[in-house]
Amino acid sequence: MTKHDGYSALLVRVLFTVPRRVLIAARGEIAIRVARAARELGWEPITIYEESDKPSPHVRAGVLSFPVKSYTDAYSIIDVAIKADADVIHPGYGFLSENPDFAEKVLDHGIGWAGPSPRSMRLLGDKNSAKGLAEKLGIPTLSWCEARSPEEARRCADRIGYPVILKASLAGGGRGSRVAYTPDEVEQSFKIIEMEAKLGFGKPGVIFVEKFIKHARHIEVQILGDGAGTVLHLFERECSLQRRRQKILEEAPSPFVERVEKIHRLREELTKYAIALGEAVDYSSAGTVEFVVDQQGRPYLIEVNTRLQVEHGVTEEVTGVDIVKQQLLVAAGYPLPISQQDIKLHGWAIEARIYAEDPANGFRASEGVLRRYIEPRGPGIRVDSAAEEGMPINTKYDTLIAKIIARGFSRNEAISKLRWALRETLIAGVETNLDLLRVIVDQPWFADAEYDTRIIENRLNELVNEVKRRRSIVKTIAAQIPASTTAPRLDSYNSDSSSIVMNHGYGWPWPPWRRTLHS
Amino acid sequence: MGGPGHRGEERYTPKLLRLRRLHDNLYEAELITEQGERLRLQVIVNNDIVETPFGRYHLSSIGLVETEPTSTSSSAESWLVEFNTHTGELRAKLSMKIVEISKKPGERVKEGERIAVIETMKMLNDVHSPCNGEIIEITQPGQGLSPGGLLAKIKCEKKQE
Predict the structure, then answer these.
(1) A–B: how many Cβ contacts below 8 A?
(2) According to the model, what pLDDT value does residue B8 have?
(3) Among A307, A407, A419, A438, which one carries the catalytic annotation?
(4) Are A252 and A288 in contact (CB under 8 A)?
(5) Considering only A34-38, A52-56, A423-427, A431-435, which range has the smallest mean pLDDT?
(6) Of A431, A475, A511, the CB nearest to B64
(7) What's the order of all strands across the beta sheet hosting B114-120?
(8) pLDDT tens, A201-219?
(9) Which of A395, A423, A472 sits opposite B14 (nearest CB)?
(10) A517: closest CA of chain B, how far (Å)
(11) Do residues B54 and B124 both lie within one domain?
C-alpha cells in the first residue's frame, strides 16, 4: 500500500471514462503546455486562434483548432466551446484568465472552468479586497492609501513614511509604478503615472501610494484547492529577479526562505497565510499568493493571482505535482487526488525566461523572424516553448520565446545545469535577453542568492557591458577565421551571405573544449 | 534616455594576438582586452554558429551577418523608428500612437531635438530629429501608426564637415 494509490485509482477512473474535451483559451507555450496535460489524461485538447496567428505552433497542439475573433472575445470563445462540445475551458494565463465575468459566462453555459470560482476571483483578484480580507485574517499587508491628485498623494506619502511606491490601480504586469523618496518626487510620479494610465486604459483610475520596501524579495506560495474546503500548498517560489517589475528568473524553493529558516520559520508563516486566504474563499484550482519579504524576513501580502502562473513549472519540478492536470481534474468535477502529506520538496529548480527584447535598449520588445532556434536538452532540463524556426515574433503578443527550467539535486547543481542549458540555446533573427541571462547566472551574487527585486535594474550597466564584452571577443575571433573549403550546408538559410563556411559534427552534450578559458 | 546601448557599441575592441587551427573547424585564439587582460579560448565554427565557452552565438547576433539592409541612419530611437536618409522619412518600427507633436510642418529642427511624443506598449517615449533640417510632414496627435507607418518627413541639411 502506498499513499499514492488514491492518485492511481483516480487516474484509472479518468482514463477509462469517455474522453473529455478541453478548450484552451490561450496561445503560445501555455496552450501547448495545457494541451499536453489534457492528452496525458486521455482528454482531447482544442485550441483557438486569431486569424493573423493561424501559423502559430499552438494551433497544431489541439485535435481541433477554431478561429476566434480575438483571444479576449468572450462570446466567440464560448461559441467555439459549445460548437466543439468542450467540457472544460482552461484559460492559460493572460487574456481572460483573471476575468470573473468570463468565468461566470463559461459556468452559466454548463462548461467547467479550470480556475477558481468567479466569487473567489472577485474577492482575491482585486488588490484592495484581497488586502482587506488579509487584514481580517491577521495577514500583514503594506500600509497604503488612494490618491486622486498630486497633493493628496503627497499627504498620503507623508502619513505612510518614505520611500513610497505609486501604482495605477488598473495597471498590471509591472506597468505604471514608480518609487518616490521625497514629497516632490511623489507629486512628479503621480503626474507621470496618471498620464500613462490615461493613455493605456483611457482613464486615470485611482493611484495607490504604498510603503516601499528596500531590498525586497518577491516570494510566492502556490496553492491548489478543490472548491469544497480543501486547500493545499505546494511550497514557495522566489521570483525576485525582475526587470521592469516583470520576472525573468524564478526558483523553487526560495533560497532566502531556506537561509532564514534556521532563525525564523518563514516557510511555515507564508504557507499558513496562503492557506488561510484560500480557505476563506473556498478556493478551487491553482492560485498564487504573492508576498514581498523585507531584509528581516517579515512578509507582507501584495496580491493573489487567481490563475496558473508563467513560472508554475519550477514548482512542478520540485514537488512532482502536475499543476495543470490538477486544474483540469477539479474543473471536470473530480476531487483533488493528492493531499498535503503527498507534497514534498525534492531538489531545486530554476527557470530562465527568454524574451524577444533588447536589454541594452530598456528591454524594449523586439520583432523579427526566428531564423535559427536551437533548444537545450539533457538530464534535468525542461523547455516550455512554442517557438520554431521561421516563426515571426510580433509584439502584438507576449514576446516570451522559451522558458528553460533546470532541476538539480541542490541549488548549485540546478545553477550549473541552467548555465549549460543557456549556453547550448541558440536564437537568431531577433534580439533577445539570452546573453543577459547567461551573464546573470555567472554572477557570484546569483550563486550566493544575494539579490533583491531591483538588482537587475541597479546593475544593468555592468551586466549589459559584460554581454557586449563577450560578444566583442567572439566577434574578434570569428571575424578572423578563414572560410573553409567545405561545402555550405544545403539548408543553411544564408550560406551565401556568410563568409565562414565550415562543417564539423559535434555530439551532445557539448564539444570538447571545456578546459579553455584562461586569464 | 533613448539609446545608451547604441553609443558604447564599439567600446570593447579586444586585440587578437594569435589564432591557431587545432582541428577541422576548432580554433584556439589568444586575445588581449583593452583592460590588458589576456584570454585564451577555443571556439568551433559551424556554418553560421560559433561555439564558445560563453555559449553558442549566431553570426548575426555578433554583427558579422547583417540581418537587415541598412540604408537608414541610426537615431536614438532606432528600436522605435527608422529614418531613411534618402527620402527623409521617419517610419514606425512598432505599433504606436502619437500623443503630442512638438514641431509643425515648415518648422526648423535641430539634430536631437524632440519632434514628437509617442506611446507604445503603454509607455511614453520621445522621438528626436535625426538631423538638422525642416519638417515637411508630421502625423497628427491621436493617430495610430502600424509598423512601417509614416511618422514624419524631414528635409535634412547636408552636413558641413
Answers:
(1) 202
(2) 43
(3) A307
(4) no
(5) A52-56
(6) A475
(7) B123-128, B114-120, B96-101, B144-145
(8) 666 667 889 899 989 999 9
(9) A472
(10) 5
(11) no
B11 has pLDDT over 80: no
Q: Is residue A118 very low, low, confident or very high in pLDDT (cuts 50, 70, 90)?
A: very high
Tell which residue, A16, A481, A465, A454, has the closest CA to residue A213. Answer: A454
* Residues in chain B closer than 8 A to A500 (CB atoms): 45, 47-48, 59, 64
Q: Using CB atoms and an 8 Å cut-off, which of residues 71-130 of chain B contact chain A?
A: 79-80, 93-95, 97, 99, 119, 121-124
Check whether A519 has a pLDDT greater than 50: no
Q: Rg of the Cα trace of chain B?
A: 21
**Active-site residue A307, yes or no?**
yes
Dihedral of alpha carbons A40, A380, A114, A354, sign: negative
Looking at residues A457-466, what average pLDDT do you find?
A: 95
**A166, three cell numbers:** 505609486
List the domain range (segments joined by +) for residue A407: 217-467
A330 and A377 together in one domain: yes
Residues of B in contact with A199 (CB under 8 A): 97, 99, 119, 122, 124
- A41 is written with which cell numbers? 489524461
Beta strands across the sheet bearing B108-109: B72-73, B81-84, B89-92, B150-156, B133-138, B108-109
Cα of A207 vs its chain's centroid, Å: 25
Please indicate, yes or no, if residue A495 is contained in any of the structural domains: no
Here the cell at position A142 is 503594506
* Mutation target vs A (from B44, B52, B81; most A CBs, 10 A cutoff): B52
B161 touches chain A (CB under 8 A): no
Of A131, A120, A76, nearest to A98 (Cα)? A120
Record the pTM.
0.78
Does one domain contain both B85 and B131? Answer: yes
CA distance A471 to B62: 6
Q: Are B54 and B76 part of one and the same domain?
A: no
> pLDDT value at position A501?
32
Answer yes or no: is B1 within a domain. Answer: no
pLDDT at B120: 77
Residue A86 distance to chain B (closest CA, Å): 34
Where on the phi/psi map is residue B150: left (φ > 0), alpha (ψ -120 to 50), or beta?
beta
Determine the distance in angstroms separating the CA of B94 from the nearest CA of chain A, rounded to an integer. Answer: 8
Q: Cell numbers 483516480 label which residue? A: A10
Distance from CA of A435 to the nearest CA of B (A): 9
Helix, strand, coil distribution of chain A in percent, nearest 5: 35, 25, 40
Residue B156, Ramachandran bin (φ over 0: left; ψ between -120 and 50: alpha; else beta): beta
In-domain check, residue B67: no
